[in-house]
């Protein structure tokens, strides 16, 4: 670990463990959710919100100077809500209203801190490009960060947006949660995406590949997003493990959907306990 | 610029609005217009050509609107509505964003380009979207006012444009807040039309008069939300209601009117005249395609007279 102190790393790991446990409990109560894809991007979300990357004010969610974060892979919303609640965007007790007031996909009407309605893949990225362009025109210095799934990158509109963002030199960061699994199979078996990072490079983006579960790596590549050294947008290919944190879910296609019950639930709870 | 060319009327008005409101932006899916060139030259940063990429274009429009912009996005109807329908649903309608879609090429306006470019399903699908307001102007005056109304109305809007030039049928200061207007008042038949087919409805009305049939002509320039109360008052007493549109018979204004009648337990004979449930692979100008699909003045007049005789 080069730039991250041991204490800081422990703090982020503890937060990630708590978020995964909350995510699990929300899914159990509602009997719904996409745990695999939520757990694969939990560390990225924790780094963004607790690692000093994003600028935000929980008491003023619409603060003009905030960074715009968009969870384009909206089905991972269960990993985002505990973070927003913990930071004070809304009371933690409201997490219990999951599947009544709060749904699987981010919703600007009901969840303070959510910027864009997402859930239909590919679209949050385009909205992020528009938001970023509005900031550029108005000479604002906020940064727009979009988290996409690798399966989401099958959507053609993702690549339309990638072209657009590079052409307009947008202050835009795309983080791709590359867990290698889509809903029904490994992406390498569905339609091969490699060489993935090179595709973004060819579209005119700065690119970097990292371990999406290493806080040190995530924070290292995102530390300059407000003061980028280049006028190209940045694509971060974050290699992750679907279902990360629960042994029987890790890298298993069957845990795209699904909620553990019985013994499995107890194992999951045990593994997500500090 | 041709006098009264629809696309120049709309972009001329947007230009005027943009001089007073620097939030106004125009996005185009690689479509031009003389007045749009003027906008581009005057407001370089506020003109964005998103390329032939309507899906990301619509999402980008939404992002700009979330960032405080008032956005107009322009393209050929099938591509700027059907192609990116889901982006319109999720990004504009579900978030109620102030984006106005300007679609050009109503009905068979892109006649020789064939079914890829014909717009005969757009009203049906766009009116199914919650929050969406739909305008279909008939003349340059209504178009100019509707552009102003769209700018001032919150939420997503769709303006369905004809191609080319049409004469004015309204006085310059007509009030377009009601959603529809009685262009002609008569007793026997009420012909409800929309967009530039209103001009045809007026000629049909003349033809009916020669056959001693007295007709009203209603211009339904706002298709959604529909002003059903005013509409019901207007058709009261008519022996027959006819809808005339350059859109599929499924889901267009014929369907709108039938829903209004049914929902209000109003029993009056209704004849829907539009494009039958088929694609047109025959080529020629728009009038020729109208003729082939029974939308010419002679056929419409004949159908109305036949229906009246059946009553």
Discrete helix count of chain B: 12
Gross morphology of chain A is globular
Mean pLDDT of chain A comes to: 95
**Unreliable stretches covering 5 or more consecutive residues of chain A:** none
Low-pLDDT windows of residues of chain B: none
Helix content of chain B: 25-40%
Outline of this structure?
The complex is a heterodimer of chains A (274) and B (311). Chain A has 274 residues and is α/β, with parallel strands linked by helices. Chain A is built from ten helices and five strands, in the order αααβααβαβααβαβα.
What does this structure look like?
- The complex is a heterodimer of chains A (274) and B (311).
- Chain A is of the alpha/beta class and 274 residues long.
- Chain A has a single domain (6-271), classed as Rossmann fold (3-Layer(aba) Sandwich).
- Chain A has helices spanning 6-30, 35-40, 42-50, 77-87, 123-137, 156-167, 187-190, 196-202, 215-222, 262-271, and strands at 68-71, 144-149, 172-178, 206-211, 234-239.
- Chain A has a 5-stranded parallel sheet, sandwiched between helices.
- The longest helix of chain A has 25 residues, at 6-30.
- Chain A is globular, with a radius of gyration of 17 Å.
- Chain B has 2 domains: 6-161, Thiamin diphosphate (ThDP)-binding fold, Pyr/PP domains (Rossmann fold, 3-Layer(aba) Sandwich); 181-310, Rossmann fold, CATH 3.40.50.920.
- In chain B, strands 2-1-3-4-6-5-10 form a 7-stranded mixed sheet, sandwiched between helices. Chain B has a 5-stranded mixed sheet with strand order 7-9-8-11-12, with helices on both faces.
- Chain B starts with 5 loop residues before the first helix and ends with a helix.
- Chain B has 12 helices and 12 strands.
- Chain B is globular, with a radius of gyration of 19 Å.
């Amino acid at each position: 670990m080069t730039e991250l102190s041991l204490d800081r790393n422990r703090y982020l790991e503890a937060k990630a463990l708590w978020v995964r446990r909350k995510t699990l409990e929300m899914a159990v109560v509602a009997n719904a959710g996409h745990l695999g894809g939520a757990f694969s991007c939990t560390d990225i979300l924790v780094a963004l919100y607790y690692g000093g990357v994003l600028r935000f004010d929980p008491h003023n969610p619409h603060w003009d100077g905030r960074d715009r974060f968009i969870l384009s892979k909206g089905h991972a919303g269960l990993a985002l809500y505990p973070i927003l609640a913990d930071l004070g965007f809304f009371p933690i007790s409201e997490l219990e209203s999951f599947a009544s007031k709060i749904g699987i996909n981010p919703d600007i009407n009901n969840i303070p801190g959510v910027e864009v309605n997402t859930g239909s893949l590919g679209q949050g990225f385009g909205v992020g490009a528009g938001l970023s362009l509005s900031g550029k025109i108005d000479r604002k210095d906020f940064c727009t960060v979009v988290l996409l799934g690798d399966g989401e990158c099958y959507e053609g509109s993702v690549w339309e947006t990638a072209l657009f963002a590079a052409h307009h030199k947008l202050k835009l960061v795309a983080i791709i949660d590359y867990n290698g699994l889509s809903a029904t199979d490994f992406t390498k078996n569905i339609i091969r995406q490699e060489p993935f990072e090179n595709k973004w490079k060819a579209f005119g983006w700065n690119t970097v590949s990292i371990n999406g579960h290493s806080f040190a790596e995530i924070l290292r590549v995102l530390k300059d997003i407000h003061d980028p050294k280049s006028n190209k947008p940045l694509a971060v290919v974050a290699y992750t493990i679907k279902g990360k944190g629960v042994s029987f879910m890790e890298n298993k296609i069957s845990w795209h959907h699904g909620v553990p019950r019985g013994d499995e639930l107890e194992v999951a709870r045990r593994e997500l306990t500090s | 610029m041709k006098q009264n060319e629809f696309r120049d009327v709309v972009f001329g008005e947007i230009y005027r609005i943009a001089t007073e409101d620097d939030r106004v932006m125009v996005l185009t899916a690689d479509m031009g217009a003389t007045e749009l060139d003027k906008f581009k030259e005057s407001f370089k940063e506020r003109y964005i050509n998103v390329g032939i990429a309507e899906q990301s274009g619509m999402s980008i429009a939404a992002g700009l609107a979330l960032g405080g912009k008032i956005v107009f996005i322009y393209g050929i109807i099938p591509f700027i509505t059907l192609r990116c329908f889901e982006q319109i649903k999720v990004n504009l309608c579900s978030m109620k964003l102030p984006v106005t879609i300007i679609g050009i090429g109503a009905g068979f306006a892109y006649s020789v380009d064939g079914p890829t470019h014909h717009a005969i399903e757009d009203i049906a699908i766009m009116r199914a979207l919650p929050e969406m307001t739909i305008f279909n102007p008939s003349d340059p005056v209504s178009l100019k006012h509707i552009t102003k109304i769209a700018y001032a109305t919150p939420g997503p809007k769709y303006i369905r444009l004809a191609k080319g030039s049409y004469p004015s049928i309204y006085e310059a200061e007509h009030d377009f807040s009601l959603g529809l207007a009685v262009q002609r008042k008569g007793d026997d038949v009420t012909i409800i039309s929309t967009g530039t087919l209103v001009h045809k409805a007026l000629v049909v009305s003349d033809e009916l008069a020669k056959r001693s049939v007295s007709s009203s002509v209603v211009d339904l320039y706002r298709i959604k939300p529909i002003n059903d109360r005013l509409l019901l008052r207007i058709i009261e007493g008519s022996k027959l209601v006819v809808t005339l549109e350059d859109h599929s018979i499924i889901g267009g204004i014929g369907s709108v009117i039938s829903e209004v009648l049914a929902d209000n337990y109003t029993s009056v004979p209704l004849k829907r005249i539009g494009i039958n449930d088929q694609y047109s692979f025959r080529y020629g100008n728009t009038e020729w395609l109208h003729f082939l699909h029974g939308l010419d003045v002679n056929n419409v007049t004949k159908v109305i007279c036949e229906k009246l005789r059946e009553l």
